TrEMBL record:
InterPro entries to which the protein is assigned, alphabetical: DUF2264_N (IPR049349), UCP014753 (IPR016624)
Residues in DUF2264 domain copies: 17-351
Signal peptide start-end: none
Protein name stated in the entry: DUF2264 domain-containing protein
Domain of life: Bacteria
The species this protein was found in: Streptomyces viridochromogenes
Name of a matching Pfam family: DUF2264
Amino acid sequence: MHLPPDDRTLSPRTGYTRAHWEAAADALLGAVEPYATEDRALYHFPGDRQSWSGRLSDGLEGYARTLLLAAFRRDETALERYADGLAAGVCGVWPRIEDRSQPLVEAASIALALRLTRPLLWDRLDDAVRQRAAAWLGDGLTAEAWPCNWELFPVTVGGFLQEVGYQAEESRKAIDRGLERIEQWYVGGGWYTDGDGRKFDYYNGWAMHLYPVLHAWLAQDERLLDLYGGRLSRHLEDYARLFGGDGAPLHQGRSLTYRFATTAPLWLGALTGRTPLTAGETRRLSSGALKYFLERGAVDGRGLLTLGWHGPDEAVLQGYSGPASPYWASKGFLGLLLPADHEVWTAAEEPAPVERADAVTAVAAPNWLLQSTRSDGLVRLHNHGSEDVRYDPYYTRLAYSTVTGPAPTYDNSVIVGDDPSRTDIVPLGVGEGWAASRHSVGDGIRVGSVVLAEGAVEVRVHRVVGAAPGTAVRVTGWAAGEGCRSELAPVHGLLGDSELTGATEDGPTVFVALARLTAEADPAPLHELVSVRVAETGEIRVRWSTGREVRVRFAGEGDQVDVRASDE
């Protein structure tokens, strides 16, 4: 993808300016145009993949998600083409919005785009077209949503229809119903779970925060904006730490093919004034992510976004992923709604959190521990609270990073017998430099896990309860990553090198290992940075080279864990 050279007067840190973002949007919009049907109502991208919703729905997805990009770009020429497609689509080309159907998702993108560009698109349509379009969208007000972020799609449709005076009462009900629903999933600290359970991933940013905050902002509802904007601002305190020094987002969760849609909540905070980040931090993080993907094959030779992470990669896809699915990355261009003279475009970029200092950050709501190192720009996520077995292994591994993806050989896992599963994850707490959880393996076996971190070093403790004596246990560390190395060393109850093995005893059995993922050329040996001693009582004492000491004790059958510094 051809972009203009860096303007060093605006971006002294090698990031992207507004001109880069505009050029990227224009290139993406230009590349999809040849794949529109003659009536412009559908966009069918090349390839033999089809989502489980079928080709017609996939074509609508291509229209809706690229329309959203044109709306953020406010490209009047492109919007004229999409106006033609809208007129044709609502005359029987598009599938109806039905209960739990993919068109409900795409209706939200269309409604949001129409609301953002009303003077440029909607107001210029013939009245008959507007009536048919409102009627098509209207089915989205009462269609049953899947009980997750989908509940916000009727909210988004209702916000637009209420604004244009169509089915005002039904629109209000849809808005109230959806916003009330997500209250059940708000767990505090700026975090939502994506539906029931403990499903924490990027949907927090590109759905759970995006739609309510944009609705409140567009409706000029200060009460709602204070509520949802306040949650967004708190979320961004943690969210800014999920990006590596090279701009890479963490490789965790589902729908990763949306790529730089991860930048949407960053821009949203700047757009609404609900952010703890400076203008320079916001652009550094956002532009870093866009640049990261564009320089690593996210766009193919035809200028199309591929189904994958860097280039094509089926491992990050789900059944609902169709040829146009990656164009939810359009959400990453939300920042183009900010005028060219906004400080987010004019301020000098500032270092991202990972670039400023080493940090080990406890994130209480999802029970995560974020570990980042300035020297190599790596961010590691220790997952002791997020689970969605439908999308294993992107939820159920013990750790994720900005430079590694889950490996088919079960990286970052505790394998008891031959069972690598990790289900029924129960958070046991998170604090300064540590996180803990318990999970189930097969029938009646429980594993309590604690990670302690400092710098790039990790102490991993696992206690297996309920397994027959002599049951084999394997502990794995980090998979190979881009330009980095993985280390795993036994401390207690384990033997081996890259994969550690041991066996259970009669009763609860403790296993301890040291781990490290680093891109440093010549790091100090692990044994010089930390020492670990396991007492006969089962207490684990950890002493870091900085002098800090921590002790870990399990209680009962692994339902509780006590982690405290030696001076507490």
